[in-house]
Every structure is written in structure tokens, then in C-alpha cells.
Write a structure and sequence with these properties.
81% helix; 338 residues; 16 helices; two-stranded antiparallel sheet; mainly alpha; single chain; 4 strands
Length: 338
């Protein structure tokens, strides 16, 4: 009997692992994509410092995307086919953007001076294309891949908002890593990106319950509404904290060494709350009101076999991620750390 219950619970475990991998990816690769988008429009010295701030991390951050999509493929093959089939175009654009970023990052270091601006622009363009594609995928996924112009327009809007969210993460990362003029720029960038990100989070919150009657009832029936209420309240509080601390750091440079981490922590908290609300709304479906995790899951024997591998791989990835961030902590100078 216990074995049967555990088999039933296996899809839940894999959905949680996939969700964890995607959340970590959005936060970690989000800030380096944001730095790439912010790269356009600053002078060469600042570009070098911005690149140096993400240099040890950006390619390793993408490991989490590979892990998340890999879990979707092996644990939920039916949903993998439906989701990636519906998102074929934005996925292709995202891969183009990721490839462009990788090529540009390596070639800008080796390029002659008159070619370097082209590779800087390529890194910016790849970051922007990747971010917009991911936001578009999120918006189209939430609408259940519905037909018509409204879902497409909503996907375009969420694409723009995720670009802003990544810029916000990138700016807050630079507040931690940079000093002097670049840190001042980062504070201004973060303040401007904060409220467009807030608009995107609000739009997702408004649209999601109207995607289906099931989600609407899950949000607004009693006592569910009481259980869900802390999510928007905490999110609003985090936005207020982020706004106030950005203003404080802008006006009081002497307090920056003590509190420079707080904007980034606040924005990570916002992303976690938004992700939690989305997961609450969609569960137990992988495709809205069409495919549940149990319908899409692989055979229990396959899931058990894969779980052993994930139990080994996941702590390893977490370990070297934490270690790399500890080794390369501290303020960044032009392509060097101390």
C-alpha cells in the first residue's frame, strides 16, 4: 500500500524539482541577462566592469535551465511535447539569443578595439531576445495556449515585463558588485525598472484567475482566499521595501556597504512570491485544464530510476553554485576581483 502511495506522489516530487530548477534559473540567469540588457548605452570601462561582474557565473547559471527542461522531458514527456510544440517559435528565438550571448561574450575579449562595440551590441541583443522570448513563453503558457490576438498581445506584454524584471535583477546585482559611478547608475536603473516589473506582476495576478473557472474558484472560494491573501500582501510589501531602500541608498552613499544586498534580496523575494502564486494556481496541471502531472508522468519505475540520479546531481549543482559565488564575492573592478 505504501508503495502505491509513493508511486502516486512521484509526479508531485518531480514537479517540485522542476519548479525549483526553473525558479533558481530565473533568479540567477535573470540577473546576468539583465546586466546584458543594461550593457547598451554605457562607456567602455563600465561595460568591462559589468561583464566582469557576471563573468564567473553566467554560463553556469544556464545549467538550471537545462536541468528544468530535462526534468520536463524525462518525467513528463506528454506535456513536454505539447508545451514545446506550442512554444516552438519563442523557444527557437530564445536559443538564438543564448547562442548569440555565448559567442559575443567570448569574442568581445579577443576582438580588436574597433570590433569590440559590435560584440557588445551582440551580447546586449542576445540578452534582450532571450529575456523577451522567455516572458512571451510565460504569458502564452498562462493563457493555456489559447487562440486569438488577445493571448498573443498578453504574451508580448509579459515579454516586455520580464525584460524589465531581469533589468531590475541585473541593476540590483550591480548595486552589490559595483562602486562609485556604476553603482549610482545601477540605483537609477533599478528604480526605473521597479514599477514596470510591478505592473507585470499585477497583470499576471489579474489575468491568471480568469484563465479558467477552476483557477478562479481556487483563488476566491472560502477559505482559499484567506490562505492566498499573504502572497499579494507580502509582494506589495517587498515592492515598497525595494523602492524605499533604493531611494535611501541613492541619497545616502555611506550606507551602501551595509545595505547594498537588500534591494536584490527584496526582488528575489518578489520573484519567489510570484512563482508561488503561479504554482498554486496551476497545480496539478502542467497544461492549463488539459494535462495533469499524473497524466503526463512517465512510468513509476522510470521516475524512481531518474530520482536516484537527481538526488546525486542536484546537490552537486547547488554545491558548486554556492562555492563559485563565495569565491567570486566582493566588489568588481575592470575584469578583476578582490
Amino acid at each position: 500500500m505504501m508503495n502505491i502511495h509513493f508511486n502516486d506522489f512521484l509526479p508531485v516530487i518531480f514537479m517540485a524539482l522542476m519548479g525549483l530548477a526553473m525558479l533558481i534559473y530565473v533568479v540567477l540567469d535573470g540577473f546576468d541577462l539583465g546586466v546584458g540588457i543594461l550593457l547598451n548605452g554605457v562607456d567602455e570601462d563600465h561595460k568591462d566592469m559589468m561583464i566582469a561582474s557576471i563573468g564567473p557565473f553566467w554560463d553556469a547559471n544556464e545549467t538550471w535551465l537545462v536541468l528544468g527542461v530535462g526534468i520536463l522531458l524525462v518525467a513528463f514527456p506528454m506535456a513536454h511535447g505539447v508545451i514545446l510544440g506550442a512554444l516552438y517559435l519563442p523557444v527557437a528565438l530564445m536559443l538564438v539569443g543564448l547562442t548569440l550571448r555565448g559567442v559575443a561574450f567570448d569574442f568581445r575579449v579577443k576582438a580588436k578595439a574597433h570590433h569590440k562595440p559590435w560584440w557588445d551590441f551582440a551580447f546586449f541583443a542576445g540578452s534582450l531576445l532571450t529575456s523577451f522570448s522567455q516572458g512571451g513563453m510565460l504569458g502564452y503558457y498562462i493563457t493555456g495556449f489559447a487562440d486569438g490576438w488577445l493571448p498573443i498581445l498578453f504574451a508580448v506584454f509579459t515579454g516586455m515585463c520580464l525584460v524589465s524584471g531581469y533589468m531590475l535583477l541585473g541593476a540590483c546585482w550591480l548595486i552589490i558588485k559595483a562602486e562609485d559611478d556604476l553603482q549610482d547608475y545601477a540605483l537609477s536603473w533599478a528604480r526605473r525598472a521597479l514599477w514596470l516589473t510591478g505592473l507585470g506582476v499585477a497583470a499576471l495576478s489579474v489575468v491568471t484567475p480568469f484563465v479558467s473557472q477552476r483557477i478562479f474558484d481556487k483563488w476566491f472560494s472560502f477559505p482559499n482566499i484567506l490562505l492566498l491573501a499573504p502572497i499579494p500582501l507580502i509582494t506589495v510589501a517587498l515592492f515598497v521595501v525595494a523602492d524605499r531602500i533604493l531611494v535611501h541608498l541613492k541619497r545616502n552613499p555611506l550606507s551602501r556597504p551595509k545595505w547594498h544586498w537588500l534591494p536584490f534580496a527584496s526582488i528575489v523575494g518578489i520573484f519567489v512570491m510570484a512563482f508561488h502564486g503561479l504554482a498554486y494556481s496551476l497545480f496539478p496541471y502542467l497544461v492549463v485544464d488539459r494535462i495533469t502531472i499524473w497524466q503526463a508522468a512517465s512510468a513509476p519505475e522510470s521516475l524512481k530510476f531518474m530520482l536516484v540520479g537527481i538526488v546525486i546531481v542536484l546537490p552537486t549543482i547547488l554545491g558548486y553554485t554556492i562555492y563559485s559565488y563565495r569565491v567570486f564575492s566582493g566588489k568588481v573592478k575592470a575584469l578583476s576581483y578582490y
